[in-house]
Amino acid sequence: QSVLTQPPSASGTPGQRVTISCSGSSSNIGNNYVYWYQQVPGTAPKLLIYRNNQRPSGVPDRFSGSKSGNSASLAISGLRSEDEANYYCKTWDDNLSDGSLSGPVFGGGTKLTVL
Amino acid sequence: QITLKESGPTLVKPTQTLTLTCTFSGFSLSTSGVGVAWIRQPPGKALEWLALIYWSDYKRYSLSLKSRLTITKDTSKNQVVLTMTNVDPVDTATYYCAHRPGQHMDDAFDIWGQGTMVTVSS
User: Fold this and answer.
1) pLDDT-above-70 percentage for chain B
2) Pick from A46, A88, A103: which is nearest to B46 by CB?
3) What is the per-residue pLDDT across A32-44, written as a single tens digit (0 to 9) for each?
4) For residue A27, is it left (φ>0), alpha (ψ between -120 and 50) or beta?
């Protein structure tokens, strides 16, 4: 069970806008950057968003990220069939007792279906 | 162009030690800010971060697996090695290594290897 909560599934039709949420706490999302990864089944994950809302070169501007408080969201506009994949949020989880035990944590993933 | 490739056994017996190697090119693990991480994914399940080694040789481990993991680097060979002791069938997963660029991308894992599937079974 991850400390980051994502809906297990989401869906939309081509051209629609969909959002995927990622909920955490002040020890992770609330005080750290959020990253988003796309994983097409059978392939390695691909970085979509870093520093909450920044896109690496080559990632279409249809993908956007945001963060507010202890939650973050990934929005995909102009949905395409090739967007059908699993999406994972990731952030840093702070261990307040021992900083050396802090590290990255992934959400449980959201399977996006393009209807 | 940055590439990473994982290698290691495909089948390991319970209680044995698993050793995985990540061989990379296109970057140096002695460059400030850079790191290499290991992440695994059991079949049909979510990603799980395991360990991270930085250019400075500082290491971080997943709290739940810390006692079983060791990550090391050989900068001259462009390799990062992960060992996991006392494996169990629940450790069956695809294991990935990934590049941490640091700098303005902070803790992003921007380039991933193709992954290597490891099955733990007697």
Assistant:
1) 100
2) A88
3) 999 999 999 999 9
4) alpha
